[in-house]
Amino acid sequence: MAGAAALACLRAARECQLAATSFSDDQAAQGLAITAELRAHFLPPTASTQAASPLLQLPAELLTAILSRLDTRELARLAATCRSLCRDAPTPPPPPRQIGPVEAELRRRFETRDLDVGSSLPEGTTSWVACLLKRDRRDAQMRQAPLAVEDEHSIFVDKGGRLLTCGCDYLVPRLGYAKDPDADPYALRTIIPPTPVPSMQDRRIVSVATSQNHSLALSADGEVYSWGLGDVGVLGHGDSDNRAVPSRIESLSRIERIAAGPKLTSAAVDEKGRLFTWGWGFTEEEDEDEEGVKVEFEGFRGLGYELDAGSEYQATPKQVDALSQERVVSVALGDGFTLAVTDAGAVFSCGSNWDGMLGHGPFEGEVLPRRIEALAVTGRRFVAVVAGNRHAFALTKEGEVYGWGGHHANGHGREERTPQRVAALIGQRVKLVNARGSASCAVTETGELFTWGGFDSSFPGNLGHEGPQGTPMRVAGLNGVEIAAVAICRTHTLAADADGVVWAFGQRVALGLSGRPEFDDDAVIRMPTPIPTLRVRVLNSP
Length: 542
Fold this sequence. Notes:
The two termini are 68 Å apart. This protein is elongated. Helix 1 packs across helix 5 (72-81) and helix 6 packs across helix 7. It is built from eight helices and 30 strands. It has helices at 2-19, 25-42, 47-50, 60-68, 72-81, 101-112, 128-143, 373-376, and strands spanning 147-150, 153-157, 163-169, 189-196, 205-210, 214-219, 224-228, 243-248, 255-260, 265-270, 275-280, 282-288, 294-300, 313-319, 328-333, 337-342, 347-351, 366-371, 382-387, 391-396, 401-405, 416-421, 430-436, 439-444, 449-453, 469-474, 483-488, 492-497, 501-507, 524-535. A hairpin with a 2-residue loop joins strand 23 (430-436) and strand 24.
């Protein structure tokens, strides 16, 4: 076989010498000489495995010409005899691409959160650094909130990461300041301009959340601080003590998202996407049926797990095991119910379902999180959820808004027990949604603010236009202003523009604007007004 392969090469080389005009006489002579050596080389059986074939010494074009003259069988024989010609080993990978320190840090952040950045750049991008920066900034914008409001107070995160508050303190320590021990505990304390919380000046804050009774602040280090009314363990410290100043929740670390519910519940999501909840978990409620008769019924507060026997609350953060196989990317707390979105875009709900807030249709409550099928069948990927008192919204990756629950602020002007797309926002690409109490709002990708709800006419001005509004309506007083963050409640609204300027309207008591703080018609700001000297931390795409 070896001899036949050598002779085939010899014949091919001779044909090449006679036929190819591109080869010089010297090249042809060299090819014939090497082929002669090749014949002798084939004779010792072990030589072919110990040395490279002399054919490899030929000019590349001559070697190609020779091999092209061999048929498949001759090539097979040559391959079996001269293994150095086969090169069957896998091609070594190219040297790794040099990664700079900025890209390395961005990749570390995504790996820490178990997020896959992919192996190839998305279509339309040419830089890994720019791509990762944009994605990280977009994710941060979804999980961080520089504004939080409730009826009598407001909380801010300024550009330097300082925690500021303003509004009223009465019985419940909402503002984060320790009271003078000699002062009347029932005295009303009012702070007009947004003022830094003294005990938090050495912490850099990135996000805040609040309810009527308690508040949470998230630091850049992933630590969570709580203050306010401590009933039913809602502050997460293992007791029911009130705390006038923010105190760190020791059992939580590396947290990325926080939420404060209106009925003494709290939630946090860590960098691995694990959901933790605590606070009020079970109670008996009293309500009226359709005929106005008072009825008692059991309600679940939406913690997402069964409480220990005989207990009605969870005093320290506890992981929601029912979602342990999911990565939670957004969480919202309403009046006795919880919503969560996973990185796969699925929306889950649990808790009480009095006005269809869970989105499942029937009015039965759910102790454990259950996926909302009406959203699953849309085929959309959801990225965020928000909750008012008894209504809720889910936002898709494409900027579509679905609303359900009580009709006053769900965007439809009628009660919806299952999620429906908000018709008034079709054609708008929404980037942010916010809700609290009976009021709701949305911010489009171009920065326009829409508000609706506010059925309680005793607090005019919180929507930026006159009277209650059943469906979304653009706030005309912010024409030309690009809104980047917003917080709304029953009494007032705060909206931060792309430069961090905060525009306030509604009841003056918690707007951070000078003037009379009392609740009367003269203390209403109906047109959006900037808060002097305040700039909050907003995140826009780079």
